[in-house]
Amino acid sequence: QVQLVESGGGLVQPGGSTRLSCAFFGSAFSRYTMGWYRQVPGKQRELVAQITSDGRTNYADSVKGRSTISRVNAKNTVNLQMNSLKPEDTAVYYCNANWVVGGTLTYWGQGTQVTVSS
Known about the structure:
mainly beta; 11 strands; 0% helix
């Protein structure tokens, strides 16, 4: 009974910024590793950034240095701030929650479109 709902995104000019938010509806949010993935037609879904339950972060090389993932456990939210956007950042961005127990619990949001274009 975990549901993820993304918000934010939209049309942004090259060099601009955007902030994506993900609301986690359910229990034990603080136990999950949260991540942002993106996908374009004809390509595999790729990891953009992730943050563990204790705050450790990882970023794709393509966004490292211009993106920041953060979480507020008391609010059950995870955010992705992206700056210096490029046309190649255009994609549908998905929020992900992952928890390895015995098997793996994985949940996905519905996705939100980010389009970088003049």
